[in-house]
Amino acid sequence: MELLLQTLINGILAAGIYALVASGLALAVGVVGIVNFAHGEFTMIGAFIAYLLFVGTGLDPFLSLGLAALVLFGVGAITYLGLIRPVLAAPELNQMLLTFGLSVALQNIALLLFGADTRVVSTSYQGATLSLGGLSFGVPPLLAFGLSVVILGALYGFLDRTRLGLAVRAVAQNRLAPGLLGIETQRVYLLAFGLSAALAGVAGVMLSVMLYASPTVGFAYTLKAFAIIVMAGLGNLRGVVPAAIILALAEALVSTYLPGGGGWVEAVFFLVIFVALTWRSWRAA
Amino acid sequence: MRKVWMVLLAVLGLAGLALAQTTVRVGVLLPISTVAGKAALNGVQLGVDQVNAGGKVKIELVVVDDGNAPATAVPALTKLMTVDRVDIVIGGLASGVTFALSGPVKQYQPLFLCIGAASSVVEQAFSDYNRFFHYHPWDYHNVAAALEFFKYLYDSGARRVAILYEDGPFGSAGIQTYRQQLERQGYTVQAEPFKSGSGSFTAILTRLKGFRPDILYWIGYDVDALPIAAQTRQVGLEPKLIYGAPPAWPTGFEKNNLSNDIAGMTAWLPSVANNESRRFVNLYRRKFGEVTDEYMAPMGYVIALSLGRALEAAGSTDKDRIAAELAKVQMDTPFGPLSFKPSDTGRTRFQGFNQSIWLQFQYLEGSRRPVFPPNRAARPLRFPGNY
């Protein structure tokens, strides 16, 4: 029983960061209508910002969250204005090739600047644990989970309770009607893409503490984020958190209870994509 | 008139010296964007400086990046052979890349001085190529050295080993054989695969708590080092030793408190106490302004020095004469004595080092210290470690 409870805790704690990365991706897909393959590279930039600030000034990575979010919002906004906006009316394949190209370019720029090495920060709490009734809670995943809950709560609050947030949701539901009602869709797109990148950057900062900074750090999480948004339904922001929890729990249960389960973890994610897409096709037919 | 004769004699003398000095262009094919590749290149350049300073031969390097990928390495080698027209190539750091190079190398027939590529698959691939000099030990040498350490740990009271291995070719190749060999030593073994780079170990480590391993042995990449160290503590696993076997460790890992007491294997550290090692460290510091603990740096240095000796002895740029002289080289190096013999399996003719160069280290107070074998240890092994 204790093993099961610990497994469930492991899964739920992992879900926080999955949801954070996936929410950013869901914003880009749902509001702007862009499948952003460079989302993982925005995460990577966040990780490097935290790492460089740590090495240069000794700043604890969690204290660089705000700066990373601002910088990444700027990166997202520039990317939108310079690259995404011109192809909004282009075929989807062109848009995907563009973001795929951006992903490769950003990874190679990072390789040129920092090399392929894995870099780690050093904080006093990376191995810290809270124990409760025989159950262990790792401090970094707990912090990341707590922060993810706060940030996603703020995001949903913004989307539900502010005029701008309602405008974002309106554009996500229908791209033409909000324009007829006086909502400036281009500004909404800019805001959504900037927020999407900022969320990725914040996740990157957390990854720098829990994992490492390297040019490829965002790749695995982007793959998981794609699985999550597919399961939630493309563009369905509200479905992201439950989907992240289900997938993270499935991952933890497979790792714990299936012999050799550690090697099946990624298969779980892609099985979910496969099942979700097939099920939707049958339902629509 | 006398002055004219003197000038003429001086010019002829200089020309004679230039003719006597053998100059050879050598291709260097390394993943120079990685820590190990850059260290290897630095070592080669340092060794070439030493050879050229001797004045008898002159080596000119043509350096190209193999991108740590077969798709980059093969065209890079083709360029070295067809555009730069070198006859000697130093390279082959990663096994996967070197395996992919085996075909083009056999096609262009250079003298290939291989710096890394420990996989037996590479040994097989070059088994019919007589211009292949492999300096680095093979993977079976690595296993033999690690097993010697595990025997010592068994004698120190360790009984259960949990092996975490990444499920790609690097981690899973030979895992069953490894497991059997540990069981033959008396260990109870539980082996679990994982996805390298996933950062998700809590579930597997939680399950391993029931097994209560004395040794947590992980075979993966640098990206897995910190998550394993952190999550082992987070789930309260408490093994007596965490032993890692990645090809390289993360930058800055030694400064992280979580690295303390973690053990691993390397071929060389700056604290290795022999004259050649000390000489190498001094020369490296003078040229690059820092000390490296990447063993690929002295490996590159040794390759350049041994090539210099062979060139001097051959007195020619003919690659077969150079190869014949290289086969006879016997020299002291930062790793210990170097001479070429057929590999243990007999597949390749010129094998440089074997398991004797491997040493076990432990991260202790912010740096890696040799702890095994006892005759090369700078500090006693901290066992059990404090995790």
TrEMBL record, chain A:
Which Pfam families does the protein's record reference? BPD_transp_2
GO cellular component, alphabetical, reads: plasma membrane
Q: Which Gene Ontology terms cover its molecular function?
A: transmembrane transporter activity
Q: Which InterPro entries match?
A: ABC_transp_permease, BCAA_transport_permease
- Swiss-Prot/TrEMBL GO biological process terms: amino acid transport
Q: How does it sit in the membrane?
A: Multi-pass membrane protein
Q: Which domain of life is it from?
A: Bacteria
Where in the cell is the protein located? Cell membrane
Indicate the transmembrane segments per the record. Answer: 12-35, 42-59, 65-84, 96-115, 135-159, 188-212, 264-282
Q: What are the alphabetically sorted keywords of the record? A: Amino-acid transport, Cell membrane, Membrane, Transmembrane, Transmembrane helix, Transport
Q: What's the family? A: Belongs to the binding-protein-dependent transport system permease family. LivHM subfamily.
PANTHER family noted in UniProt: AMINO ACID ABC TRANSPORTER PERMEASE PROTEIN, BRANCHED-CHAIN AMINO ACID TRANSPORT SYSTEM PERMEASE PROTEIN LIVH
Q: What is this protein called?
A: Inner-membrane translocator
